[in-house]
């Protein structure tokens, strides 16, 4: 161990073992993220920002959870390891083997929001804003789970907080999971939540647009110090798959902000 290396806290990914039953940190933290998100959505509903009642919040949470899991799995299959799953299609449903894509989960969650909003006769942008405001804790907890699993590690470095990840090699590396958890999960959440009074309905959709562009920017930058998947490597020039997907996410965020601003300007003209 060098002087510039912090010992990696080699935590057992399995929290509890009861016979053949295993409760893993990843699953626990994944559910914890949704529970915190549930509390935040209920608060937004009570504040009158999310235009649905208590029962609606529960239905929305279930819909988003299903969308995130299905979308995250299909996103991983399509974006990260399609040949493997084409060779063994049954592996697609074996989600317990690992393999979820954030960007795929985002697409799945968006689909769930659209379906929920239409069934409840609520503006889709309103629900998107609420989801954006409540997403941060879930991102943070999942990145903590990635860290505990010793996966998605960073590139070799000599920074003072470098760590050796046993599943990688003996080189000190960036703890990129923690970078993402703190920046995407904590910092972005605090900014959006603090400014929700100004961003909500002024115009509707601005909060979602800020989340999309903010996350995409952070993820794109962190990817420079995150080790790309070994079987993929760079996929577009020097860019990783995460950076390519984040670029698309950033463009969607700009489009969302433009749509929100256009609707606001139109509303101002109509009001006048």
Task: Describe, in plain words, how this protein is organized in 3D.
With about 270 residues, this protein is mainly α. The chain has one domain (about 20-155, about 165-270). Helix content is about 60%, strand content about 5%. The protein contains 10 helices and 4 strands; from the N terminus they run E-E-H-H-H-H-H-H-E-E-H-H-H-H. The chain has helices spanning about 25-45, 55-80, 80-85, 100-120, 125-135, 135-150, 175-195, 195-200, 205-220, 240-270, and strands spanning about 15-20, 20-25, 165, 170-175. Strands 1-2 form a two-stranded antiparallel ribbon. Strands 3-4 form a two-stranded antiparallel ribbon. A hairpin with a 2-residue loop joins strand 1 (about 15-20) and strand 2 (about 20-25). It is globular and about 55 Å long. The chain starts with 13 loop residues before the first strand and ends with a helix.
Please report which band the strand proportion falls in: under 5%, 5-15%, 15-25%, 25-35%, 35-45% or over 45%.
under 5%
* Tally of separate helices: 10
Strand tally is 4
Low-confidence stretches: 268-272
Largest sheet: 2 strands, antiparallel
* Helix content estimate: 55-70%
The largest sheet has its strands arranged as 1-2
